[in-house]
Amino acid sequence: MLLDIKGVKLSIVKMPLKNPFTTHLGSVTEREAIIVEVEDRNGFIGYGEGVAFSSPWYTEETVQTSYHVLKNFLIPLLRKKGISHPEEASLLFSSVRRNHMAKAALETALWDLRAKIEGIPLSNLIGGTMESIPAGVVVGNNLPEALKQIEGYLEQGFKRVKVKISPEDDLHYISEIRKQFPDLPLMADANSAYSLEDVDRLKALDDFGLLMIEQPLGYDDIIDHAKLQSQIKTPICLDESIVTFEDVRKAIDLGSCKVINIKIGRVGGLGEAKRIHDYCVSKGIPVWAGGMIEFGISRAHNIALASLPGFTIPGDISGSDRYWEKDIIQPEITVYDGMIKMPEGPGIGFKLNTKRMKEVTVFEEIFEF
To answer: How far apart are CA 190 and CA 167, in angstroms?
Structure first.
């Protein structure tokens, strides 16, 4: 039986970050996103979040392009053909090339809706087994500030720290952190700042016992990463170059990485994220859940995803107060002793804070079915 959808509401929300988020690609001081609400005729509402940024610095998608694709292509497809289960969304949307973040925004709302209709947590619906998940955190690239942040996060019980690096200051930066925190579970995110010409510099990072180095080479590369992985001991984790299941299969076959970061928005939805997880488990490749400076809706979906058994590395999933003075969900996501407890309510387990939504919404539109 098809999901009996009454309508879809799209809202563009905008909020300043408590602190700027900076990589070598630039800084984000204000976050804009799309919140998707899918309501059925029994009054159940599923929530999704479009995690594209305002400008195309991470992927080619932006808030505006995602909104265009949702409004003019994906929602009309759903209205015309319908689905009975969110697993069917990927096939339904396959006539639209790429635009994975737009697809994930609507697809995740459908997963939340389905779980609420069944009256079970979303984590249960997708086969999750964890009762709580470990939280990781990202620190800034100002060394004195980073050292202070790490000390504070360790006191709070965070299980893993990620730092942003580039060829300008990587060795000094990592070595100073290691001097102060020799046993810290530490990973480095390069955001494609290196090339194969930097192989000796990247080899030098082997001395610091990093959990992994994330996406050191080109954002769309798999071949050169295989060459690099064969020359360094530090496990390479692929992020930006993993946008489809086929990317995962080819990367593993080529030996391009030893770890994979799964972001629901980047791969086109929760269904595809689960498929990638299942394949990685079958191949012995550990995975972890990446973050996109999300609001609470997307963060809640990440929590459900990270409940799957293959997520053995703490993800970039922290509390709502990490980025926001006040989130758009209630209760807000909290971290206790470095862990996030799996919500027990149906669906994502969090409600929309309607008052906060009104305060931060800059545009909204309803599409009736």
So the answer is: 9
User: Considering the entire predicted model, what is its pTM?
Assistant: 0.95
Nearest Cα residue to 200 out of 231, 221, 230:
231
Give dist(CA 107, CA 67) in Å, integer.
Answer: 14
Tokens, residue 64: 């505006």
* pLDDT tens digits, one per residue of 45-65: 999 999 999 999 889 999 999
Q: What CA–CA distance (Å, rounded) separates 226 from 257?
A: 7
pLDDT per position as a tens digit, 195-249 = 999 999 999 999 999 999 999 999 999 999 999 999 999 999 999 999 999 999 9
> Are the CB atoms for 342 and 131 separated by under 8 Å?
yes
DSSP H or E run through 79? helix 75-81
Q: Report the catalytic residues.
A: 164, 263
Q: 322-332 pLDDT, tens per residue? A: 899 999 999 99
The kind and range of the H/E element at 90 are helix 89-92
Which residues are paired to 214 by β-bridges?
A: 189, 237
